Amino acid sequence: MIYVFLIISSLIILACIYFILSPFFLTKESDEEKGDESNDELTLEAIYRAVNELEMDYLMKKVNEEHYLKLKEEYQLLASKMMKQMGAEKTKRSQSKNTDNLELELLAELHKLRKQEG
Questions:
Q1: Residue ranges per structural domain of the chain
Q2: In angstroms, how far is CA 38 from the centroid of its own chain?
Q3: pTM for this structure?
């Protein structure tokens, strides 16, 4: 009977140690994955946030006017480039959808013509 209590208590202790130590090992892997994703993709929203922070710094006189105008122009150019890229991707998608629809219509017409002939 004593052995049963020893085994159960040792299992409980091992489970506690596992639950205490496992977050330290798991968070390192997930943080690295999140960091890679966030570094690869700079979003339009992040650029707008940066412009707003820059504007607040300028209004609070933390940044001089020349530096403010230069950085604001850089952020605006970056945002416009991203918007152009997003627009180009959307037009490519819509063009591919249009060509797919046209191909389907052509195939349907060819199928009808073949049925009429044969």
A1: 1-41, 42-118
A2: 7
A3: 0.45
